Amino acid sequence: MSTLEDLRNIRLEKLDKLISLGINPYPATSYKDISNFRITSNFDSLEGKSVIVAGRIISIRKHGKLIFIDIRDVSGTIQLYIREEDYSGADYSENELKFADLDLLDVGDFVEASGVVSKTRRGEISVFTHKIRLLTKALRPIPITWDGLQDKETRLRRRYLDTNVNREVFERFIRRSKFWQAHRDFLNKNGFIEMDIPVLENIPGGADAKPFVTHMEALDQDFYLRISHELYLKRLIGGGYEKVYSIGERFRNEGLSEEHLPEHVAMEFYWAYADWERGMAFVQELFSYILDMVYDGKTVFNIRGFEVDFSKGWDRVDFTDLMKERYGIDVKKVSLKKIRDLLTEEGITFEDDVNLARGLDMLWKEVRKTLSGPIFLINHPKYISPLAKAHPNDPSITQRFQPIIAGSELGNGWSELNDPLDQFERFKKQQALRDAGDEEAQFMDIDFVEMLEYGMPPTFGYGHSERVFWFLEDVTAREGVPFPQMKYEIDRTTKNIYDLDNGKE
Q1: Looking at beta carbons, which pairs linking 35-42 to residues 24 or more positions away fall under 8 Å?
Q2: Count of CA atoms in the C-beta half-sphere (13 A) of 94
Q3: How far apart (Å, rounded) are the C-alpha atoms in residues 173 and 101?
Q4: Fewer beta carbons within 10 angstroms: which end of the chain, N or C?
Q5: Could you count the other beta carbons within 10 Å of the beta carbon of residue 247?
Q6: Is domain 164-480 classified as CATH 3.40.50.1370?
Q7: Per-residue pLDDT for the chain (505 aa), expressed as one digit of tens each?
């Protein structure tokens, strides 16, 4: 059985032969003038017309003086029907191949073909080809079928192979692009302005998360990669803008899991003079728009073992009621000792220095696993919502909601806290938790408090990440992004090919 190195050496020999003929194996120019799908979907109007197609070779079949080559571009696959008699010659300086040179082509190469649209005797729509140009010589063979690429580690490390072989993965990342485009279209048509905000921050804030730390040489100062878009967008609200949003990467230096990646894309928007009630209705409209634009109006999804039906509307579920029903506690009055006792009873591992907010959140996550949704979770205790406005009828809870889908929190929305003195006190409590060892508690951001002292109008804020997309696709976090973070390594074959570290392990 030939090894990868053997197959690569054969292709290198073909590369040398092509170069000796005067052919450039990597030209810059292609004359492609039509997509494969346009030909196959508009055959009646294109039959007999001259076209120039291009794509990657995925199949070569030879029958004497007749060769069939299937090529694929982003739109699909088409067959090249090549007869020796149709070839009158080739200009090597233009990268054209003679019929006899077609043996130098391999699956994986990119070619351009000029010919006439027609059908074979078996009815296969084809390009009856009279000229082929080489566009790229591939030195490594790609797996032809899914069966040839099943190792998950290989798929994730070499996603470019995965998308070549697995059409479903290829289409998934097109939907991922449409997912974020739908957000932009919906927000833009509702009068929101997309704003670029810093990725490097002096003080990270807007979420409970451990940040990444880096150092800026120009200022000789440490900076943090943002964990949220929130505080800079709210500064813009304080600066006079009324509807702003941002879509982009955020970074949380926490563990990898089926539902979390340290680097991921997220969206947040802020809406002056709106509150959480208007926000809930708006977020429900946003979800409906996404389902229409990305999934052609599909409303029932199988996600993580749940059947989630978005057509039935979104119920509201009270956090306090849920926790009382499940654990018999009043979250507004419960003690840390009671929380610790419940964690022990539930078999939930916790650190010795666990605080009330963190312990309650750990208990809540057990309840969350049972909820299919879609629902809005409301009435969170104030001590677990440091940036949300307190409810006017009950200061112990906040005007906050979370979309719950398939046992998970997939977003956060609230009436924003704009009282600078209240915000300062909440930041002080968060900083005290951080000083006591809670690496996910929020930093004191005195600059943000100062902005609030100049005045920020009543504002609604909401954000969610691409976890929403992963859930709609019912895939893991790493399957939901083109290039997930993985530990860097170079495989032995590549080390041998390029003589890296002289063949040493």
Answers
A1: 35/73, 35/74, 35/75, 35/76, 36/71, 36/72, 36/73, 36/75, 36/76, 36/77, 36/78, 37/75, 37/76, 38/75, 39/78, 39/117, 39/125, 39/127, 40/76, 40/78, 40/125
A2: 12
A3: 37
A4: N
A5: 17
A6: no
A7: 678 899 999 999 999 999 999 999 999 999 999 999 999 999 999 999 999 999 999 999 999 899 999 999 999 999 999 999 988 789 999 999 999 999 999 999 999 999 999 999 999 999 999 999 999 999 999 876 545 566 778 888 899 999 998 999 999 999 999 999 999 999 999 999 999 999 999 988 888 788 999 999 999 999 999 999 999 999 999 999 999 999 999 999 988 888 889 999 999 999 999 999 999 999 999 999 999 999 999 999 999 999 999 999 999 999 999 999 999 999 988 999 999 999 999 899 888 888 898 899 999 999 999 999 999 999 998 888 877 888 888 988 899 999 999 999 999 999 999 999 989 998 898 888 888 888 778 889 999 999 999 999 999 999 999 999 999 999 999 999 999 998 888 888 888 888 887 645 4
The SS3 assignment for 66 reads: strand
Parse the chain into domains and list their residue ranges.
Answer: 4-136, 164-480
Distance, CA of 124 to CA of 239 (rounded, Å): 63
CA 226 from centre of chain: 17
Q: Is the peptide bond before 262 cis (omega within 30 degrees of 0)?
A: no
Three-state DSSP class for residue 239: coil
Radius of gyration of the chain (CA): 29
The size of the chain, in residues, is 505
Domain 4-136 carries which CATH code?
2.40.50.140
Structure tokens at 208: 């409970």
CB 483 within 8 A of CB 294: no
Taking each helix axis as running N to C, give the angle between helix 319-327 and helix 356-368, from 0 to 180 degrees, rounded to the nearest 10: 80
Can you spell out the DSSP letters for 101-148? GGGG--TT-EEEEEEEEEE-TT--EEEEEEEEEEEE--SSPPPSSGGG
Place of tokens 């149709």: 86
